[in-house]
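Convert to structure. Protein one:
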Amino acid sequence: MKKHVLAAAILLAPCPVLAADGWSDFYAEVYGGISQSTVLTWYSFGSVDSTYQMESRAVFGGAVGIQTPVDNLALELDALVVPGTYVGYPNDFHDTLSLMVNGVYTVPLGDRFDLYGKLGAGVVVQHYHAQSNGADSTAAGLGYQAAVGANVMLTDNISLFGELRHQDTFQPVNLQPPQYSVSRPTTVALVGIRFDMN
């Protein structure tokens, strides 16, 4: 837990500096969606031990961001929760919680419609709980995400958006050291609402 708090503090530390430098136009987002069925891989001492298909599940998250002095470029802090259930094992769960810093570049296509892409990096926490074998463990690793989406302004301060996002860790997470580590990539389809605080 201390490691997770420290990681969050490091990610949040630049925010006051950015505001002091004259960056403006803050925004906040809340969103939900569904995860795609992807393959989770368990490794034993670095070699593939087993693979499992994961169920599609509802996901949720949110973000806060700020427009940078660079035209159409924003910086945001994003949190995403992706619950996971093993196909064929309804009581075995493998959830992820991510905290990422994203760069978001927007391409305006009119007064009220935009396309955007984002790249981010940060921390991904995995939690594994299995009734089938009694296991319960949590670990974190460094990860990344990439996304594309579209944004439609409803008013001057409220927008709706849709997004497709892929997320993974740079290396398998040491979930049950020293023997077992896990690769848990996720792909999610999201819809959400954005509030601009100009």
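Protein two, convert as well:
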Amino acid sequence: MKTHVQYGKDKKPFVNISNQKYDFDEIDQLTAPLKIFNRNGHLITEYAGMKICEKQLSSVYGIFDFSSFIREGLPHIHHNFNAQAYNLNILRGVQQLKVFGDELVINDDIYKQVFNVFSSTNGYYPLSISVGLFRQVCSNGMVVPVKGLASFNIKTKHFHKAVENHILDFQKRIPLLEDTIFNQQKTLEGLFKADISLKKVVENLILKPDSEREEKKTLLKVVQRLGKKFIHSETDKIIIEDYAEEQIEILKNPTLLLTNPTQQQMDIELNKYNVYNCYMELFRERNTAIIEKESKRILEALEV
């Protein structure tokens, strides 16, 4: 344990571990010294008896006991997939644990089973917990929600009831984990086996009857950015040499299928998996809640 605890210039201890072989006892030993408590209306974060963060509390703040959650919840998680490695970060008012399970190869892309817990005691970040398949090329991961199954992603501000209710709900859903990951895999494989009209995707994204006017404006810009990903994505760009010049113009800016009368009659068939990955690349650096929201949106547009 001593080799993993470091000290900054301010003499405060911190933990920053990447790609360490999974060891539950080691994780427990490293998180046990973390103490989070209320002292006279101030949220105090201590590690190994030293104060590393202090923040004034609001009356509705709910404390998330990071170390207790890991100690009690992690055995249930790694029971459902074969834990291989972990990352752990405890630095001032930020705490994060990522546990990596088996790798899966889907359509020549590598996905990993990942359990991620991110919390803060500095007031800057909400509590976020997720379990599922993360695409290796994505720095923020890509969790695929599957219709009809409970979501394994929660994000909530540190309010008393919100924290308590979300944790209880998450614990109830753990038995579904194995089925959820299996269905995520099948969803991705199914996307690879099917094509779809690009015009249909654009219409499904932008022309939904329940979309607000401002949302449609935003989605028009998103679709324009999607066209750039079709051309320039490092991992999923479309081979434009396979298309005519007029079709390449549409790939560069798919909104032309709705706005340009001369091109509205044209269309292109694209692989659903390709479209999905290019779309999700737009949100690669966003938090898990936005990734889940946009993943649902594009899956609906792809008629999955």
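The first helix runs from residue 24 to 31. The CA atoms of residues 150 and 254 lie 33 Å apart.
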